[in-house]
């Protein structure tokens, strides 16, 4: 058998690449290395701009040329780093060599020894991961998440008045509206959105074991904690003042747990919409040229929601693993986080793919109001709750002598299908006041929705 040419092992880099490609800009190995170069360059510029160790600030042209290494980072730099790492066997050292090489090309050898000055590799790594994760979440994942919420919100508002039979424990229950049920999910997702929006992205910059030991020996008079804080915050991150060699990764655990939580709510949405489709509550809009089944030409399968389910489960498993393992490091540092963090893009990639499918799926369904109304009309027994509640109110008000309203309705409705005529006859014979009797006789399953439609307004403005 002829071997295949080299193939992507992950479906995120193969079949589903188009849906997640924007994440690669940040969470790929190349994205990480570009961020590492950026941190190294900015540290050089910080040191020289403050005249540390007798250095002089770079000219505007020199500064721009050095930062151009980050702006122009591409295949040539990726290949050069691979050459360096083949010798160093150390990814961050390879980045240092690349920056030093660039300094030499720019005639800046005079500041070469400030490259990676007083840094442990993790000083560069933790800041680079914080930058890339922040950019990926804020610029790629969150906009897609917000898009799904907005689509769902529009459906909730569109169908706010569409009555539907509820199903608690899978059985017919007090009616609601489709819009209200979708609004419940919008509210849940927006609460988590606020939490993710408020996430901190922490960084440390304090040397081999976090105590600035080498820094103090190099310059005992410098205020190294202040310098560290200024530098970390200049990168748009929150400074962590107390760490070991590594930044403790607690912010990552918090973020990934929140994203996994959002995924679980979305998973609940996907299974519910799938179920509504199977019940006929939603019609799927056929897509031109699409095939539902290789043998049954009539089918339009809910593949968007099935795909989302699976990818949310994979994403949650990875995010949970990241959140639980990254917070532990033996003594002052071990290397388990290095491999673990290289899977952040995979975890967010499966989540992003699920979001893409849910968004597409929600735009490819249409409410089947006829099916909703037919289901309501076939389940008049759900009015039993309303009738027994009204009787109890009438008994309390002294307008009825019925001794056990719940038992009375249980006998009439439990496990039975009864229609309008049977309920009307039953209500007409009740020992209750005329006003209550008229309210119950006018009640139908499609009108027994309480405040469901107006509850959609509780969403307020989009967040």
TrEMBL record:
Entries under InterPro entries matching the protein: Fumarase/histidase_N, Fumarate_lyase_CS, Fumarate_lyase_fam, Fumarate_lyase_N, L-Aspartase-like, PurB_bact, PurB_C
Keywords on record: Lyase, Purine biosynthesis
EC number, as in UniProt: 4.3.2.2
Domain Adenylosuccinate lyase PurB C-terminal: 329-449
Residue ranges of every copy of the Fumarate lyase N-terminal domain listed in the record: 61-308
First and last residue of the signal peptide: none
Single GO term (MF): lyase activity
One of the Pfam families matching this protein, by short name: ASL_C
Pathway: Purine metabolism; IMP biosynthesis via de novo pathway; 5-amino-1-(5-phospho-D-ribosyl)imidazole-4-carboxamide from 5-amino-1-(5-phospho-D-ribosyl)imidazole-4-carboxylate: step 2/2; Purine metabolism; AMP biosynthesis via de novo pathway; AMP from IMP: step 2/2
Superkingdom of the source species: Bacteria
PROSITE patterns attached to this UniProt entry: FUMARATE_LYASES (PS00163)
Function text: Catalyzes two reactions in de novo purine nucleotide biosynthesis. Catalyzes the breakdown of 5-aminoimidazole- (N-succinylocarboxamide) ribotide (SAICAR or 2-[5-amino-1-(5-phospho-beta-D-ribosyl)imidazole-4-carboxamido]succinate) to 5-aminoimidazole-4-carboxamide ribotide (AICAR or 5-amino-1-(5-phospho-beta-D-ribosyl)imidazole-4-carboxamide) and fumarate, and of adenylosuccinate (ADS or N(6)-(1,2-dicarboxyethyl)-AMP) to adenosine monophosphate (AMP) and fumarate.
Protein name as catalogued: Adenylosuccinate lyase
């Amino acid at each position: 058998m002829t071997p295949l040419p080299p193939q992507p092992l992950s479906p995120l880099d193969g079949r589903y690449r188009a849906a997640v490609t924007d994440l690669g800009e940040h969470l790929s190995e190349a994205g990480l290395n570009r961020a590492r170069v950026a941190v190294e360059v900015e540290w050089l510029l910080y040191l020289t701009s403050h005249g540390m160790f007798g250095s002089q600030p770079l000219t505007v042209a020199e500064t721009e040329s050095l930062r151009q290494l980050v702006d122009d980072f591409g295949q040539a730099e990726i290949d050069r780093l691979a050459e360096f790492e083949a010798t160093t066997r150390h990814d961050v050292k390879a980045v240092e060599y690349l920056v030093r090489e660039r300094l030499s090309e720019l005639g800046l050898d005079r500041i070469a020894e400030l490259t990676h000055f007083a840094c442990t590799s993790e000083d560069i790594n933790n800041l680079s991961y914080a930058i890339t994760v922040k950019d990926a979440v804020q610029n790629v994942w969150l906009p897609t998440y917000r898009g799904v919420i907005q689509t769902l919100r529009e459906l909730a508002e569109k169908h706010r008045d569409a009555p539907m039979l509820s199903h608690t424990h899978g059985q017919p229950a007090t009616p609601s509206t489709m819009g209200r049920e979708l609004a419940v999910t919008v509210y849940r997702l927006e609460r988590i959105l606020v939490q993710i929006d408020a996430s901190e992205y922490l960084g440390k910059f304090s040397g081999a074991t976090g105590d600035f030991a080498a820094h103090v020996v190099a310059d005992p008079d410098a205020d190294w904690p202040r310098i560290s804080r200024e530098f970390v915050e200049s990168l748009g991150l929150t400074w962590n003042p107390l760490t070991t060699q590594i930044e403790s990764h607690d912010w990552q655990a918090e973020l990934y747990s929140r994203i996994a939580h959002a995924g679980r709510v979305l998973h609940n949405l996907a299974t519910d919409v799938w179920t509504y489709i199977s019940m006929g509550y939603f019609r799927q809009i056929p897509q031109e040229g699409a095939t539902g089944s290789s043998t049954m030409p009539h089918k339009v399968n809910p593949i968007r929601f099935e795909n989302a389910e699976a990818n949310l489960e994979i994403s949650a498993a990875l995010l949970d693993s990241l959140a639980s393992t990254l917070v532990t490091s033996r003594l002052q540092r071990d290397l388990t986080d290095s491999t673990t963090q290289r899977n952040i893009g995979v975890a967010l990639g499966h989540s992003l793919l699920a979001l893409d499918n849910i968004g597409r799926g929600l735009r490819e369904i249409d409410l089947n109001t006829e099916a909703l109304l037919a289901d309501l009309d076939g389940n008049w027994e759900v009015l039993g709750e309303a009738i027994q509640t009204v009787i109890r109110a009438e008994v309390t008000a002294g307008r009825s002598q019925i001794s056990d309203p719940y038992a009375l309705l249980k006998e009439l409705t439990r496990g039975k299908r009864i229609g309008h005529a049977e309920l009307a006859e039953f209500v007409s014979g009740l020992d209750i006041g005329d006003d209550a009797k008229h309210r119950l006789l006018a009640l139908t399953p499609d009108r027994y929705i309480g405040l469901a439609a107006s509850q959609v307004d509780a969403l307020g403005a989009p967040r």
